[in-house]
Amino acid sequence: MYAFYSLLVYIFYTVFKKEEESALGGEGPDGATGQNETRHVSMETQSRRRNGHTPSLARRGFDGVIDSGGSSGDSDGLSDEEEDDDCAVEEDPGAVASTPLAAFLSFKQEAEKRRASHALLETGGKGPESPLVAVMSHLLSFLEQYAHLQQLQQQAEQYRLQLQRRRVRHRRQVKALRASYRRRLRDKSSVISTLEEAISQQQSEGDRAASGFQAGLHKLVESLCGLQGERSQLRGELRLLHAQLEQKDQDRHVRAQAFQQQIEELKKHIAEREDELARLRTESGVTDSEKRVLCLSAENESLKQSLTVTQGLLQQLSVLPSQSSCVLLKENETLRSRVQQLESSLQQRGDQLSYLERRSEQSEWQRCEELRRREERLRELQLELDKERSKEPVVKYVTQTVEVESPATLRQLAEAKEHNELLTEKLASQSKKYRQLEEQLRCSDEVSGNLQRKIIAYEVEIEKLRGELLKEIGHLEERKEEAVKAAAECSEQHLQNLQEQFTGLQRRLAALPPTLRSMKTDYASLRSQVRNFSDFYGAAVMEAKKQLTAVISEMSEANKDLLEKYRKEVALRRKYHEQLVELKGNIRVLCRVKPVLKEDQHDEGQMVVVTTDPNNESAVTVLHKGKSRTFELDKVFHPQATQEEVFQEIEPLVTSCIDGYHVCIFAYGQTGSGKTYTMEGTAENPGINQRALKHLFSEIEDRKDMWTYSVTVSSVEIYNEVLRDLLSKDGEKLDIKINPDGTGQLHVPGLRVIDVKSFQHIKKILAKARRNRVTFGTQMNHHSSRSHALLTVTVLGTDLTTGTKTSGKLNLVDLAGSERVWKSGAEGERLKEAQNINRSLLALGDVIQALRGRQTHVPFRNSRLTYLLQDSLGKGNKTAMVVQISSLERNVEETMCSLKFAQRVCKVELGPAARKIETASMCEQI
Ligand SMILES: Nc1ncnc2c1ncn2[C@@H]1O[C@H](COP(=O)(O)OP(=O)(O)OP(=O)(O)O)[C@@H](O)[C@H]1O
């Protein structure tokens, strides 16, 4: 109890120290240093929480924040993302529980619980509560308040953060609205432009003249306006031209009438002249008449010229409608100048006419005068005629002359008349052309009227579209205004809400400092109390430590004793077991489980079915066909067992070889199960062979003061039932024979036996034997040993004091792999090998069976292997078999076979081992 309180106070002090440091250092509660310093406390708290001790205060704070967060979340109607943010914020108070303070509070709960339980136990009869407990409860209530304050501060911080986030979100919303409004405007303008394009396309289809216009309504409107301007200008020009034409028409009419009148007058004049001429012909002389005819002809010519000019003008006028309006303009100009010219010529004509009138008046006057004179003359001539009636031939001559001249004048007159008729015809055709031109002009007027109507229709349509467009824009503007207004209202409301919340929080915060101050004073006083208290709890802790140390040392002492006893017990058990085995002469059977290697993991069926029991070193369990079967052997090595561990188990047998025993150690198992690895090992991690010889030499070295030893080594392999020397160069075939020395022991004539002096020497020999061994790759093992390899070490010892001789033999056998022919993929030569291997292993099994059944006949000779091992497998020998097994499911059948065989071997009793010893005088067997 005392120790518990001491511990509690220590934790409390640590927590306070940390809080103080963080406050001074300005680090937040999440500071990395703080975390590091309090990690052990937090971990302890978490573990307690896992056991159901959730601090009530922390949970309360967490719930409170969730409630407030939840209500605000509902009222805000935030998006999922925002709600996620809120959740993230809500989780923070949960973190409070993991602070040292919360951890400490959990202690408080426990303390309260314990107090309650104590109160129940100590039913009233006890004295008042200890001062330490009172101080602690006071302290804890303060801490509770302090924690509450921290939570409130955190809440305020969270609210501030929320407010900031919402402001940012509001700004983003406004931005997004603006952007969407702009986007919509852009969309509308693109719709308008597409409309304009469509209109322009229609326009271009309908109006050939507008084919060159640019797409776009504005341009169209502009061009239409331009066209309108041009049209009105053209209209004006046309009107002007019309007026001019009318004017010219009138002029032409007037002129034609004038010409007509002139012609009429001229005709009249001609008629008059003709009359006059006729009259003159009849009445007077020729000379004046001729002059007048000449004069009239000249006038006639000038009239003809003016007529030609008028005709030319008329022709030009007929060309006018077919020309374009711009050409018309130019023509108009030229026409104006022409009209001016015509006016001037008309003026001239007028002048000429007045001149002619004057002259006509003059000539009339002259003619009257002449007539008067002629009348007078006629009278005179009448008178003379009367007188000259008698002079008839002279008159006749004159008449003839008149008659002679008169036909020429008549011809001229006829020609003039003809010419006149021609001119009249031309005039008629010109009038016709004029009418046609008028018709054309009317047609063009109609066309221009149609065009005008079309333009007006287009204008109306454009106006309509413009109106619609403006209406749409107005509509959009209204909607935008509404949206912006709504968003602004919403955000304002939001802001107002948040501000209200913020103000509430600020109010609450403002109310907090006095409480905080009072708490701080409480805290300071408590701290001082705690500081004084530190000496007290320091002593308590020391005391508790001492007690603990004492208890621990006591316990460790007891443990040591127990361990020692246990070890002794195990060693004793082992010794007894070994003695029993030795007495019985059993073959020791060891089992080694091959670890699952990388190369095995790529294959299928890699489930592990073999398990070893760490508490029982002699049991191995195999899961076979859904059933698990346990095999009891002398020793089971788990997959991680080292080469050294395996050798440790064999070592006594090796040592006994020096003492003069025949020992046989052989590895048995399916191909690829690790036989060669166990017996030979690798260069870096040698197996039993090397280790055994090393041990032999070290033992010999140890005994060199009392014993002298000679070690010889030979190595053979049995491949396809043929014995081969692994140490000779040519690998000659050998045979097994009975030794002719009469001992009855087997011997192999021609076998190379090498004297070995040192371990280094033996290493080379072993390497040579390994090289010479037959290996091939099979589906089961890439370097499968296809033969049984036998390393025989003979140790002959001589006791230096007594001269006693010992002859020990160590047979180290690496059997070829037992395998299923179909599984190893053997064919041809490999099949033959496999069959031989299996046959010799079967023979080994038969030998084991016979030995086990204590049969009188043991079939050693059934195979070369058993024949060769006869020495070591027979009675009085020490034999150990290492059964190699694979732990993978795909090899479970072979594993079962090997273990069954091992179990059979286990039960073989060879009888007590016999030492091969020879005293100086006699040969005896003990
Ligand atoms: N305990 C082990 N630790 C590591 N590797 C092992 C172990 N046992 C066997 N191996 C490896 O497994 C492979 C096959 O072993 P090994 O050649 O010794 O089998 P084997 O029983 O002699 O086969 P075979 O009968 O075909 O000659 C070798 O590469 C070997 O290094």
From TrEMBL:
InterPro entries documented for this protein: Kinesin-like_fam, Kinesin_motor_CS, Kinesin_motor_dom, Kinesin_motor_dom_sf, P-loop_NTPase
UniProt-annotated location(s): Cell junction, Adherens junction; Cytoplasm, Cytoskeleton, Microtubule organizing center, Centrosome; Cytoplasmic vesicle membrane
Extent of Acidic residues compositional bias: 77-93
Superkingdom of source: Eukaryota
Native source organism of the sequence: Scleropages formosus (Asian bonytongue)
GO cellular component: adherens junction; centrosome; cytoplasmic vesicle membrane; kinesin complex; microtubule
tRNA-binding among keywords: no
Record region (Disordered): 23-93
Name of the molecule in the record: Kinesin-like protein
Entry's Gene Ontology molecular function annotations: ATP binding; microtubule binding; microtubule motor activity
